[in-house]
Amino acid sequence: MALRSLNLPGVGTKYEFETDKGDTVAIFFTKTGTIQMYTLQKGCHTPSAAEMTPVEARRLGNILTGAIIEADQESVEIAFSALADLRVTIHTYIVPRAVSGKTIEDLEIRAKTGTTVIAVSRNDKNIINPPPSFVFETGDAVLVIGETDQLRLFEHEIMVD
Amino acid sequence: MEGIILALFVCLVLALVSKYLTLPAIPFYIIAGVIMGQAGLGLVASDQISSFFSDMGLIFLLFFVGLGLRVDKISENRSAVLTSGIIDLNVNMFIGFVAAYLLGFSFTEALIVAAAFYISSTAMAVTSLIENRKLMMRESETIIWLMVFEDIAMIIVLALLSAGDQNLFFFAAKIIFALAILYALAHYGKEFLVSILDRDDELPVLFTFVAVLATAGFAVLFGVPDTMMVIGLGAVFATTDPDAFEQHARPFKDVFLVIFFVFFGITINLSGNVSLYVLTVICILAIVSKLISGVLTGLYLYGSAKSGLEIWANTIGRGEFSIALAVLYGSPPVAVTIAVMVIVTSLVGSFAAKYSGTLLHGFSGRSRHHGPPPHRMRAGH
After folding, report:
1. Rg of chain A (C-alpha set)
2. Is the pLDDT of residue B46 over 90?
3. Domain extents for chain B?
4. Least confident of A37-41, B30-34, B174-178, B277-281
5. What backbone phi and psi angles, to 5 degrees, belong to A140?
6. At B246, is the secondary structure helix, strand, or coil?
7. How far is A136 from chain B (nearest CA, A)?
8. Which one of B64, B136, B320 makes the best mutation probe of the A interface by having the most chain A beta carbons within 10 Å?
């Protein structure tokens, strides 16, 4: 799979790659802000196209990375193919009542699970890289980074009501 | 002042209608202008304010052309820009010039008609590729680089026309000197520029507006064409953060350009007395000559006339640049000719681009009966 990217003046950026089976996928980030995705089946002459808003495109991206999407919990897996296929997942969780009032340090999140809390969203305000002394409140949305197994541990050990 | 408001209101309605019908809006603005203006009902006349706004429209259009000139990107894709561009330039300039000259235009007039005849509308081509979901076609890359080549060709045409009777060498030296000053300002003031663009108050927009206006103003003061300088300013700004400048200048361009188009229609003077015969011939040739250059390009690049037809379908429409030439250098008969050509080609082009898929599918459907394409035969083994 060779990814080709190209800047098209006046139009935007194009990414294109051919799959091992010979199908072609092309994505265009247009200057109008929309994202167009074309797929061309091997042997076919006319591609089919879908136009998406940025939000829709991100949703599609999440689905394609294999993350499960729930209404208020969402996760994104990022794979860096250049770095020996390094994969990290970022997952959101909603803080349950039992965790309210505790700090990141109290919960020993890093020691117990290996994950890191990278951001907290509270009442439409975002706190990036919260300190160990950060106190959780019920309903906070936390953004946690780690491997899939570590995140499963976080969900079962820390986010328990 | 009431005139501009009336004109803008009519344009707003027309813009809504044209978006609904997915047709280019430019022909509607011009037709509305002609109906409201001195050639029609005489409801709106141009005054100092409207001509100031129109000038702004042209200046911001050219500023955008400059922002699109990323010298590094263009030189990276030199061969893609050149091959198709040269065929397109030669075929259309030649046919346009000979036709206009034989139809009775003077030498200079014929040159301007030919330039307007040659330059397709970049905005229409790009919009049609996006809206008709054609970006993946191999021809669309060719079309996009073709538009870049045409932009550069237009800058050269503008430079030559604005030189007029001056000594060309002295004139070029003056322009290069002024451009060097702009470049030095942007180069040494880059950090300052970026710090302004990063702010989220009114400064980025105010700065962009004033920079464009001041450049145009100084250009006039120093006797260099403001058109050249504004393009130069865009190209120089493109070396810092072109996307930010585009974002800040877009509202001005969008509004002023509509005024520019509608007042072009309003000020059209039918006393030039261009015969229907001349207009018909120019319009038909404008469509046919892009067909010739398109098919030649398709054959040359892809060995396929069908590719050529696809290139043709998306480049028929003449638009903003043709009108700019008419406004800047056109005598009344030239302006009428270009106006009609823009209206006809932009509408024909819009339909051709929309239905080219269905049209070409008919062709390929028929050719398939003559035998399967080569790769399918190989798959059989």
Report:
1. 20
2. no
3. 2-363
4. B174-178
5. -60, 140
6. helix
7. 31
8. B136
| Sign of torsion over alpha carbons B93, B94, B95, B101 | positive
Q: How far apart are CA B110 and CA B119, in angstroms?
A: 14
**Chain B partners within 8 Å of A24 (Cβ):** 136
- Which residues from B are below 8 Å from A10, CB to CB? 68, 122, 126, 144, 147-148
CB-nearest to B148 from A9, A26, A36 is A9
Question: What is the pLDDT, as a whole number, of residue B362?
Answer: 61
Checking if the pLDDT of B380 tops 50, the result is: no
φ, ψ for residue B113, nearest 5 deg: -60, -45
Mutate to test the interface with A, among B81, B135, B138 (most CBs of A within 10 A): B135
Q: How far is B68 from chain A (nearest CA, A)?
A: 7
Whether the predicted pLDDT of B366 surpasses 60? no
How sure is the predictor about A148, in pLDDT bands with cuts at 50, 70 and 90?
confident
| Tens-digit pLDDT profile for residues A79-127 | 776 676 677 888 888 888 888 888 988 888 888 898 999 999 888 788 8
| Spatial separation of the C-alpha atoms in residues B134 and B71, rounded to whole Å | 26
User: Considering the domain A75-157 in this protein, what is its CATH number?
Assistant: 3.30.70.1450
Q: Does domain B2-363 have CATH number 1.20.1530.20?
A: yes
Q: Residue A27 has which token pair?
A: 């994505």
pLDDT at B364: 52
Strand, coil or helix: A145: strand
Residue A9: list chain B partners with CB under 8 A.
68, 70, 73-74, 144-145, 147-148
In 3D space, the residue among B313, B318, B326 whose CA is nearest the CA of residue B129 turns out to be B313
| Contact across the interface for A38 and B68, Cβ inside 8 Å | no
Q: In degrees, to the nearest 5, what angle opens at C-alpha A34 toward C-alphas B152 and B60?
A: 35
Residue B44: both structure tokens together: 């709106």
Cα B351 → chain centroid: 19
CA atoms within 13 Å, Cβ hemisphere of A137: 6
For residue B61, pLDDT over 90 is answered with yes
Query: How many angstroms separate the CA of residue A30 from the nearest CA in chain B?
Result: 8
> Which among B68, B135, B376 has CB closest to A9?
B68
Helices (H) and strands (E) in chain A, counts: 4, 10
Q: Judge contact between B233 and B66, C-beta under 8 A.
A: yes
Across the range A24-33, mean pLDDT stands at 90
Q: Do A8 and B147 touch (CB under 8 A)?
A: no
pLDDT of residue A158: 84
- Which is it for the CA torsion B205, A28, B59, B241, positive or negative? positive
Contact A26 B135 (CB under 8 A): yes
Please work out, in degrees rounded to the nearest 5, the angle formed at the alpha carbon of residue B148 by the alpha carbons of B142 and B153.
Answer: 120
Which residues does chain B have within 8 Å of residue A7's beta carbon, measured at their own beta carbons? Answer: 73
